[in-house]
């Protein structure tokens, strides 16, 4: 199952350049009258999106009428270092997810601080307030607690992600199942399900 478009945004210009350069170098070393530079690049991009060799072969066969063998794709993968690039993409996805969770948490803290500051401003100008003193104290207490646990939360997220990566590396599941798990995990972190 391929990664979604948002996840593939992680393939920044640098990685796309690496893909192009790897494919060009391979074409120079192993010229093929049957497969073009564009074919190899498309196959690599599909691999990085999470497609299996079999799925890539089927897609290329369907699109171009090739009868490409999965072993050919595996050879390309080994020669051009697709697995290493895929690991980079997976790492970038984990980091992006972590950053998104931290940003969300930070936004919540900023909103609480904004309400607290608004209350203080009203108190200074004696324009009344919709918050009572004990509510203000509660907001201040909540903000302090949230600020106190932010670093712990970041450490926990990093630790969980590292544990998940190690666990996935240790078990003998097909890569497609590992990717399916990571996509589901990321969707849950985002609150999409």
Helix count, per DSSP?
A: 8
What percent strand? Answer: under 5%
Q: Shape from CA axes?
A: elongated
The secondary-structure element order is: HHHHHHHH
In total, how many domains does the architecture comprise?
Answer: 2
Let me know the average pLDDT: 76
Largest sheet: none
Low-confidence stretches: 1-8
Strand tally: 0
- Helix content range of the residues, please? over 70%
What class do helices, strands and sheet pairing give?
A: mainly alpha
What would you report as the Rg, rounded to the nearest angstrom?
24 Å
Cα separation of the termini:
18 Å
Describe the overall structure:
The protein starts with a helix and ends with a helix. With 193 residues, it is mainly alpha-helical. It folds into two domains: 76 residues; 107 residues, no CATH class. Helix 2 packs across helix 3 and helix 3 crosses helix 4. The protein contains eight helices and no strands. 15% of the residues are buried. The longest helix has 44 residues. The chain is elongated, with a radius of gyration of 24 Å. It is 80% helix and 0% strand.
């Amino acid at each position: 199952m391929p990664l979604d478009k948002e996840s593939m945004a992680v393939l920044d210009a640098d990685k796309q350049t690496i893909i192009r350069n790897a494919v060009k170098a391979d074409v120079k070393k192993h010229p093929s009258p049957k497969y073009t530079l564009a074919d190899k690049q498309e196959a690599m991009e599909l691999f990085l999106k999470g497609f299996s060799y079999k799925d890539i072969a089927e897609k290329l066969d369907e699109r171009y009428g090739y009868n490409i063998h999965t072993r050919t794709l595996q050879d390309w993968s080994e020669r051009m270092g697709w697995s290493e690039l895929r690991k980079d993409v997976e790492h970038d996805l984990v980091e992006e997810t972590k950053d998104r969770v931290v940003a969300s948490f930070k936004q919540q803290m900023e909103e609480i601080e904004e309400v607290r500051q608004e209350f203080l401003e009203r108190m200074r100008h004696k324009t009344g307030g919709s918050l009572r003193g004990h509510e203000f104290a509660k907001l201040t207490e909540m903000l302090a607690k949230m600020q106190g646990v932010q670093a712990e939360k970041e450490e926990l997220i990093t630790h969980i992600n590292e544990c998940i990566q190690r666990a996935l590396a240790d078990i003998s599941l097909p890569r497609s199942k590992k990717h399916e798990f990571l996509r589901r995990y990321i969707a849950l972190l985002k609150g999409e399900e």
